[in-house]
């Protein structure tokens, strides 16, 4: 995985090519704008029909960065879901996949303007 290491306030951080930020000392991974459920939301609102693979693609990319960094803490900075109903609209496979990614680590959801506050998804 490509990364750019830099120092911020005396801490070594890594900007990852995936768009995530890794804080190795704290074993923390920071992600944002995952937008789970985007194609479903567009279809529901009468927009263009898009292939329903963006959630799967996002989960695959998230799984890869978690495997590469092995974080104890994942912070999702917001817009994790594409609209207020997207968390409930995720199919069982996606919900199970996300549960596996969260297993054994602390997961903090920070609510963005699209997010319902997915506490039923686990995490804080």
Short description:
This protein has 124 residues and is α/β, with parallel strands linked by helices. 31% of the residues lie in helices and 22% in strands.
Features:
six-stranded mixed beta sheet; 124 residues; single chain; alpha/beta; elongated
Structure description:
The chain has 124 residues and is an alpha/beta fold. It has one domain. Helix content is 31%, strand content 22%. Strands 1-2-3-4-5-6 form a 6-stranded mixed beta sheet, with no helix packed on it. Strand 2 and strand 3 form a beta hairpin. Helix 2 runs parallel beside helix 4. It is elongated and about 50 Å long.
Element layout with pairings:
Elements: E1 3-8, E2 11-16, E3 21-23, E4 28-31, H1 38-44, H2 54-69, E5 73-76, H3 86-89, H4 92-102, E6 106-109
Parallel strand pairs: 4-5, 5-6
Antiparallel strand pairs: 1-2, 2-3, 3-4
Helix pairs in contact: 2-4
**Unreliable segments of 5+ consecutive residues:** none
- The helix tally amounts to 4
Structural Rg = 15 Å
Question: What percent of the residues sit in helical stretches (DSSP H or I)?
Answer: 25-40%
Task: Give the H and E element order.
Answer: EEEEHHEHHE
**Distance from first to last alpha carbon:** 28 Å
Number of domains: 1
How many strands, what sense, and barrel or not for the largest sheet?
6 strands, mixed
**Lateral arrangement of strands in the main beta sheet:** 1-2-3-4-5-6
Shape assignment: elongated
């Amino acid at each position: 995985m490509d990364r750019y290491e830099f120092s911020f306030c005396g801490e070594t951080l890594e900007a990852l090519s995936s768009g995530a930020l890794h804080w190795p000392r704290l074993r923390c991974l920071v992600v944002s704008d995952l937008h789970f459920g985007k194609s479903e939301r567009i279809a529901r609102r009468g927009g263009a029909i898009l292939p329903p693979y963006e959630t799967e693609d996002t989960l695959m990319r998230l799984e890869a960065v978690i495997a590469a960094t092995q974080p104890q803490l994942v912070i999702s900075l917001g817009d994790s879901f594409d609209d207020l109903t997207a968390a409930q609209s995720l199919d069982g496979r996606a919900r199970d996949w996300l549960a596996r990614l969260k297993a054994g680590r602390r997961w903090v959801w920070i609510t963005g303007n699209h997010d319902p506050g997915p506490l039923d998804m686990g995490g804080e």
